[in-house]
Amino acid sequence: MKITRIHARPVMVPLKRPPRAASGEIPEAPLVLIDLETDAGVVGCAYVFTFTRAMLAPTVGCLHALGDMIRGDALVPLEIEAKIRTRLTLLDTPGLVGIALAGIDMAAWDAHAKAQELPLVCALGGQIKPVRAYNSCGLWIDAPERVADDVEGLLAEGDFQALKVRIGRPDFAEDLDAVRRVKARIGDAVCLMSDFNQSLSMNEAILRGRALDDEGLYWIEEPIRHDNYTGCAKIASEVKTPIQIGENLLSPQEMQKAIAAQAADYYMPDVQRIGGVTGWLRAAALAHVHGLDMSSHLFPEISSHLLAVTPTCHWLEYMDWADAILAEPIRIESGHAVIPDRPGCGIAWDEDAVRQYLIE
Fold this sequence. Notes:
magnesium ion binding, 360 residues, Enolase-like_C_sf, TIM Barrel, alpha/beta, Enolase-like, domain 1, Mandelate_racemase_C, 4-stranded mixed sheet, 14 helices
């Protein structure tokens, strides 16, 4: 089976609860939909998230350029990934090029699993099983008195037992007020994660972290710039609440650097940042060797399969950002992601919706 084309389409997808974090707002989801086509008629599907509309066209260009490198190659995901990385040794693969490479890798693994008529998790040697999830679709930065208004709705969407609240307001008293209001509404039986979205200085992070230590938070995520591993390690040593990082790790090699620095208690790679399925599997091996709990960031459709084969599987971050263009969005039942029992990762496009949101 040989690759004939990479077809990439940019869309702007409406969001049910537009994100508003300390690092900025995202009114709509800019996604690039990827179809990896083969001469056997098998098509691998994946999508990537470009953060801003302005990056849609450059990402599409990167995907088509990388696709030209592998046209005619056999559908062997590990060989495809190695070839592209070798060809890009001097340029390297951070930023949009890395995202495009990860998107192709995800689509290649989807096609690989479809060719075997297996769900991705099974093609990777695992089995379908529930994956514990938390709802990350709400509790954004807002006036503290309004933050908790949607708690019941968020929990009810999949009988969730865990939520994430965003913090990082200029006035920490408002952060504390928001956390306490949410905790009062959910009680002790529901886990509450928190995320500063890289908004603090190291000293401020230590001060706020210590103040939050008695608030019953499950973790504190990305208090400072993501690649300041020494600073993260200092915070982790000074704050009792576990520190979570990892969504911005650009490779398994970067994850190894963070682990060596003892930068965090928990890690949550993002499949499009860490290098697609191939990069994820290497990162999961690192987490396993070091005995570190590993969660996911975004992309629940494919991350559920990957967490199911991750030895130190921790939490799946549930986000519904792609639901509007998916034929069958991932389901959450009893607080767990339900991995679909169909070939590939389960992604198929709702073509009517794609046409509606397509950017020409």
